[in-house]
Write a structure and sequence with these properties.
This protein has 356 residues and is mostly helical. The protein folds into two domains: 96 residues, Muramoyl-pentapeptide Carboxypeptidase, domain 1 (Orthogonal Bundle), CATH 1.10.101; 248 residues, Collagenase (Catalytic Domain) (3-Layer(aba) Sandwich). The protein is 46% helix and 4% strand. The chain contains twelve helices and six strands. The strands form two sheets. The protein has a four-stranded mixed beta sheet, with helices on one face. The protein has a two-stranded antiparallel sheet with strand order 3-4. The protein binds zinc ion. The site of zinc ion has 4 residues, from α10.
């Protein structure tokens, strides 16, 4: 093998292009190797390649133009038979792209095919994800201390406590209310009714050991999820419209959940599209969601399916019916983290009635 970069090495078609003239890659080619060339050009030169060619991994006109521009910029010309650059990926081009990418990777080995600008965004989002999880964990800690197995005898009847317990109940179907929590102070109750629209009756205290056990699992899982953000995780920019033959739909990011040994978070163009993922916090919880798939071996989204609509994070999704589903559904972690942030505004979100 002659290619050095993680991005390219071991790909037989790219290896061939680097060493043999008949192996060159040109217009009309299609497949994973073309996608890698496209992403390499986007990473290095911010090449603009049509969505269709990216989605299909097709070496069409815009890919050919990007190759030509890359070669012209670096003066890659085979003087033995030509006087100007062409739009074919031959030995010199393949080797040059590989060298440039190899240098980029040496600086940031966990980032594959992400441009410098995209890397900075993802790194900031990752830090934000840790912060958001820290906040969520502190709030779960307060609940842990006031449940039947906790060590606080007197419940601090604060708005934050009730707010946290109601979100855990709505999103995860785990009732952490104890008799110490009642009566709810009238001022607090009024605010809760306003935040949690439609909740005219507050929950009864739970005496069920199942709730205690499920809350322990939830707390352990949040701790594990937070810790998983300290691990090295490969992030790869992904532009094809399918993965292993399956259409990707509208995913901003995804992991190969059928193969938990591969924790790579694949990030699509939608991740960087502010219409689809509007804020840093949305991206940050998306990263936590992808880690949840890997660390909890969660393959799929029980209850919600892959595209939940009209969810107000603090209300949970009406299609999730029990704690077992919720604990195995990365969306539920995403919603709880999001809704526990201090600047979360419940009024911004439409309720489960949306779309009816
Ligand atoms: Zn998911």
């Amino acid at each position: 093998m002659s290619l050095q970069s993680q991005s390219f090495k071991g790909d037989q078609k790219l290896e061939a292009a680097a060493v043999s003239d008949p192996g060159h890659i040109m217009m009309g080619a299609i497949g994973g190797h073309v996608s890698k060339i496209q992403r390499g050009l986007m990473q290095l030169d911010s090449a603009v390649i049509s969505s269709l060619e990216l989605g299909e991994a097709q070496y069409g006109i815009s890919t050919a133009n990007a190759v030509l521009a890359y070669k012209q910029k670096r003066n890659i010309i085979n003087r033995s038979y030509q006087t100007q650059a062409d739009n074919i990926v031959g030995k010199m081009t393949m080797t040059t792209i590989d060298n440039e990418i190899f240098i980029k990777e040496s600086a940031d080995p966990d980032f594959i095919f992400l441009s410098d600008r995209q890397k900075e965004i993802v790194k900031a989002d990752w830090r934000r994800s840790k912060q958001m999880l820290d906040v969520a964990l502190r709030r779960l800690q307060i609940v842990a201390n006031t449940t039947s197995f906790g060590d606080l005898l007197v419940t601090p009847r604060t708005l934050a406590l009730y707010d946290t317990k109601l979100k855990i109940l709505n999103v995860f179907h785990i009732n952490t209310f104890t008799s110490d929590d009642f009566p709810i102070p009238p001022g607090v109750l009024e605010t809760l009714r306003h935040r949690f629209r439609g909740m005219t009756v507050m929950p009864e205290p739970s005496n069920s050991p199942v709730d205690s056990i499920n809350f322990s699992i939830l707390f352990r899982n949040f701790t594990q999820l937070r810790w998983s953000l300290e691990q090295k995780v490969r992030k790869e920019f992904y532009t094809q419209s399918t993965f292993k033959g399956e259409p990707l739909g509208y995913y901003a990011a995804f992991v190969d959940a059928t193969n938990p040994a591969d924790s790579t978070i694949r990030i699509t163009r939608r991740y960087f599209d502010e219409v689809i993922v509007p804020t840093m916090d949305n991206r940050a919880v998306t990263l936590a969601h992808e880690r949840a798939h890997t660390v909890f071996l969660a393959n799929g989204h029980p209850g919600t399916g892959d595209q939940p609509f009209c969810v107000a994070p603090h209300m949970g999704d009406p299609n999730v019916h029990n704690a077992d589903q919720a604990l195995a559904n990365p969306y539920c972690y995403e919603w709880l983290i999001y809704s526990l942030q201090p600047d979360y505004d419940p009024g911004r979100f439409k309720g489960p009635e949306c779309g009816t």
